[in-house]
Amino acid sequence: MSQQTEIEKKYDVGEDAAVPPLEGLPGVTRAGLPHTEVLEAVYFDTKRYTLASHRITLRRRTGGTDAGWHLKLPPLDGAASGAEPRQRRELHAPLGQPDVVPDGLLAYLQAYLRGAEVAPVVRLETSRTTHALYGEDGVHLADLADDRVTAERLHPGHKSGASGGGEKQHWREWELELVHGDPGLFGPAEELLAKAGARPAGHASKLARALGGAAGALPDAGPSRNGSTPALAAGKKAPAAAVVTAYLSGPIAEILAQDPGVRLEEPESVHDMRSALRRVRSVLAAYRKLYVPAPVRRLRDELKWLGQLLGAPRDAEVLLDRLRGHLDELPPGEGVDDVKAKVERKVGGAYDDGYRQLQEALRSDRYFRLLDDLEAFRDKPPVRPDPVAPGRRVAAKAVAKAARRLRRSHKAAARSRHGTDHETALHQVRKDAKRLRHVAESAAQVFGKRGPKVAKAAHRQQKILGNFHDAVIARDLLATVGSRQEPTAAAAAYAALEAREDELIRSSEAKYRKARKKSRNLLRRGVG
User: Which of 357, 361, 378, 390 is the most buried (most CB within 10 A)?
Assistant: First the structure.
C-alpha cells in the first residue's frame, strides 16, 4: 500500500470550452502534449452514504497509470468545495478482487463505518485528457485534467461489475493538481481558466456530484462532519455553548483521524488520540453546567473508559523507551544485559497486553457508540434551556475556577513535602495543570492572546511534572523487578538506574518550583 498528499482545485466548465494556452503561467516553461485515457471507477459506500458525508471516497479504478483501489481521506484544510485548493491524504492498494476492499484500507474506515458494510454506489466513466505543466530543468509542476464524465448510480446490493440501471449524468470539469509545483500556481491559473469559461466547482468531488441529494448531508450541501462547524464558529461575542462546540470540533476530529493509526500501531497515534480525549474531558468538566447533566456525564464516563485503555500501552511504551535509554548509558556487561531482559519482559508484556485489550475495544459496539455520541454532542449539543450565556464571561469563569483548583493542588503538594504523599500530590498538580491548559485553550477563541499565554504556562508545569511522574514510576518498577538475590553485576545496574531516576526526580521538582514561581501572577490573573 502506498500513500501521497493530493493538492488540487476543481472547476466546472462548459462542453464547448477550449483549454487555454498554459505556457504563459508563472514558472511554467512548457506544456506537454495532451494525452487521453479512459478511466472507469466504482465508488463504495454504505446505504446511508456514511463515507461521503465525512468527505471520504473509496473507489476501485481501472485504466490509466494508477489503476487500483484509492482511498481519499477528508481534506486536510477543511475546504468543503472547489472554492479553495484542497489537500487530501490519498492511499493506494493493488486492484485485487472487484468487490473485496483491501484490509489495509478498511483500517482507515472503521471509525466511520462503525460496523456497517460497504457496497458499490456509483460507477464513473471518465475520458481524461491530461496537460502536463513543466518548469525549469524539466520539473513536473502540475497536471491539468480535462475530464468528460459519465456517472451512474448503482442500486444497493449490486456487484461492481453489474449494470446499475439508473439514470446517467454527464458533465465536464477541469482539475488542476500539483505534482512538484508550488500552491502559488493556483492564483494565476484560475485567472487564465476563468477567461476560458471555467468557474470554481460547485461540488467537493465527482462522487458528491453523482450522488446529488441522495445522501442527507453531502459535503457540498450542509455542515461538515470532519470537525468544521461554520454555523457555530466562535467569535468574541459568541454564546458560551458555541465557544465549547467550536473548540471540541478539533479534538473530536483528531480522535477520528487517529483511529486508523492506533489500529495499525503507528508511532504516536495512541498518544495523540489520548491527548484529544483528555481535551474533550477537561472542557466537558469545565463547562458541564451549560448542558443537560445525563448525556455529559455518560460521555465523560465513556471517554474515561477509552482513555484508560489507551493509557495502558502508552504508559508502558513511554516507560520502556525511558529505561532503554538509561540502560544504554550504562557500561555494557552481563549485569546490564540481565536487567534489560527483565525490563523488556515486564514492561514489554504490559505493552502487548494493553494493546491487545485496546484493539478489542476498538472493534466493540461500545466504542462505536462513543463515536456516535461525540458527533451527536458536536452537531446537536444538549444545551440547557436557560438564557444564553455570553461566551467571554463563562470562559473567564471556567479558567478562573481551573486556576483556583491548580493553586489548591500547589498548596497541598507544598504541605506534603516528602514521600509517597508528596509524589501523589504533585501528580494531582500535573492533572490540574493539564485541565487548566485545556480550558485556557478553549478561552483563546474569545480572549485572543491571553488564553494561549495561560495555556502555555500551565503546559510548562504539566510537562515538567510529567517527567517527574515518569521518573517515579520507573524508580518504583525497578524496585519491584530487581531483588536482593540479584548477582552483584545486576544489582549494581539496578542501583545505577534507581540513582538516575532519583536524580531526575529531584531536578524535575526544582524545575517545577521555578516554573510555578515564574507563572504565579499570570495564572492568578487568568484571562479576565
Answer: 378
Q: Where are the alpha helices (H) located in 9-120, listed in sequence order? A: 50-53, 103-106, 110-113
Kindly report the CATH number assigned to the domain that includes residue 79. Answer: 2.40.320.10
Domain boundary among 180, 211, 242: 211
Copy the grid coordinates of residue 261: 493509526
- At 83 the pLDDT is 55
In contact, 445 and 468? CB cutoff 8 Å: no
Task: Measure the CA–CA gap between 83 and 190, rounded to whole angstroms.
Answer: 11
Residue 38 has phi, psi (to 5 degrees) of -105, 125
Q: Answer whether 269's CB lies under 8 Å from 262's CB.
A: yes
CATH number at residue 308: 1.40.20.10
Q: What Rg, from alpha-carbon coordinates, does the chain have?
A: 28
Predicted confidence at residue 88, as pLDDT, reads 82
Residue 137 carries which side chain, given as an amino acid letter?
Answer: D
Pair (207, 271) in one structural domain: no
What are the cell numbers at 79? 475546504
Distance CA 270, CA 303 (A): 14
Query: Using CA atoms, how far apart are residues 460 and 462, in angstroms rounded to an integer?
Result: 5
Same domain, 187 and 245: no
Q: Do 326 and 443 lie in a common domain?
A: yes
Question: b/e for 299-327, b at 16 or more Cβ within 10 A?
Answer: bbebbeebbebbebbbbbbbbbebbeebb
Task: Write 69-72 long-range contacts (CB < 8 A, 24+).
Answer: 69/93, 69/94, 69/95, 69/96, 69/101, 69/102, 69/105, 70/41, 71/105, 71/108, 71/109, 72/6, 72/205
Find the domain containing 442 and state its range. Answer: 230-525
Is residue 216 in a domain? no
pLDDT band at 212 (very low <50, low <70, confident <90, very high): confident
